[in-house]
């Protein structure tokens, strides 16, 4: 017997895949905090070298690169964060580091858009970051490049510009916790499954954007990510 729903279920969030007509269905979005030492420093905190830490965004926060979106509600300090994104394509549960990359489907460029004022207020009060991080259209994603077509993460440059001015510029080798370390660690606490995404953290240089700005992010060898900001949605 098929269950009958009270109302239509939201559509399955998905991402484009380079060279494929089929799309990548997105399940969960894990985001790594403070994974570049210089970014941690600019935020006034120390890198936790004992273990990585995470926050999550719901899959409905996903928005495709090239989109034009409204400045979000509830904030006066809306920030970009350029990120290297890992797409999981095989189950991983308590996987060792030396086998962690077997779970990877591919890589993408992403933006972790952040209501910074709300995040910092929550941080100061010892509260979760959900209002600052997990909101509609806050996870921007390029098409995913299958790992067979990509170089292993390491020396690639990761950069971001706003209206043509470079704001972030680093290399994936600067990651505090590597991709295998992150997958192995996450798999101790979650059954990672195909469709999960890992946003691996942002380099130094984060800052605010306003309506009318265009963001352009790139990682060597991967599809680029772009986003245009529109005025805030009118409220009644």
TrEMBL record:
Q: Which residues cross the membrane?
A: none
What EC number(s) does the entry state? 3.7.1.20
What positions does the domain Fumarylacetoacetase-like C-terminal occupy?
29-227
Signal peptide span: none
Q: Which SUPFAM superfamilies match?
A: FAH
Keywords noted in UniProt: Hydrolase, Metal-binding, Pyruvate
| GO terms for MF | acetylpyruvate hydrolase activity; fumarylpyruvate hydrolase activity; metal ion binding
**InterPro entries from the UniProt entry:** Fumarylacetoacetase-like_C, Fumarylacetoacetase_C_sf
Q: Could you identify this protein by its name?
A: Fumarylpyruvate hydrolase
What organism does the record attribute this protein to? Novispirillum itersonii
């Amino acid at each position: 017997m098929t269950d009958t729903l009270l109302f239509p279920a939201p559509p399955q969030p998905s991402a484009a895949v380079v060279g494929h007509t089929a799309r990548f269905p997105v399940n969960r979005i894990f985001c790594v905090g403070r994974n570049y030492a210089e970014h941690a420093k600019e935020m006034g905190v120390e890198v936790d070298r004992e273990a990585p830490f995470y926050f999550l965004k719901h899959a409905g926060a996903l928005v495709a690169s090239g989109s034009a979106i409204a400045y979000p509600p509830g904030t006066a300090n809306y920030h970009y964060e350029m990120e290297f994104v890992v797409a999981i394509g095989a189950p991983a549960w308590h996987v060792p580091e030396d086998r962690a990359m077997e779970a990877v489907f591919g890589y993408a460029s992403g933006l972790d858009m952040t209501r910074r004022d709300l995040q910092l207020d929550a941080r100061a009060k010892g509260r979760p970051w959900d209002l600052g991080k997990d909101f509609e259209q806050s996870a921007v994603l390029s098409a995913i490049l299958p790992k067979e077509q990509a170089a292993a993460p390491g020396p690639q440059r990761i950069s971001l510009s706003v209206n043509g001015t470079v704001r972030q510029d680093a290399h994936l080798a600067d990651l505090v916790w590597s991709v295998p370390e992150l997958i192995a660690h996450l798999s101790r606490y979650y059954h990672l499954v195909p469709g999960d995404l890992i946003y691996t953290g942002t380099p130094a240089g984060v800052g605010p954007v306003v309506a009318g700005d265009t963001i352009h992010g790139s990682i060597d060898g991967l599809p680029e990510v772009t986003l245009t900001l529109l005025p805030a949605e009118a409220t009644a």
